[in-house]
Amino acid sequence: MTHIRPRLGPMLAGGVSLAALALALNLAPVRQQVADWMPQNAPGVEKSRVERPEARGDAEAFKSTDLARLREERAPVTQDAVSQTTSEADAPSASAPAPQVAAEPMFDAAPPAPMLLDRSMVPQGGATHLAMPQDQMPPVYQDQGRDRFSEITANPVRQVADDPVSTFSVDVDTASYAFVRSSLNRGVLPPKDAVRIEEMVNYFDYDYPAPDDAGAPFRADLAILPTPWNDATKLLRIGIKGYEIPVGATPHANLVFLIDTSGSMNAPDKLPLLRNAFRLLVGSLKPDDTVSIVTYAGSAGTVLEPTRASDKAAILAALDRLSSGGSTAGAEGIRQAYQLAGSQFDADGVNRVILATDGDFNVGISDPEALKDFVERKRASGVSLSVLGFGRGNYNDELMQALAQNGNGNAAYIDTLGEARKVLVEEAGSTLFTIAKDVKLQLEFNPAAVSDYRLIGYETRQLARSDFNNDKVDAGDIGAGHTVTALYEFTPVGSEGGLVEPLRYQDAKPAAPATAADEFGYLKIRYKLPGEDTSKLIETPVTRSLEAGALEDAPQDARFAAAVAAFGQILRGGQYTGSYSYDDVIALAQGARGADPFNYRGEFVTLVRLAKSAAALEPQRR
Question: Distance from the CA of 31 to the CA of which of 47, 51, 286, 545 falls in 20 to 30 A?
Answer without folding.
Answer: 51
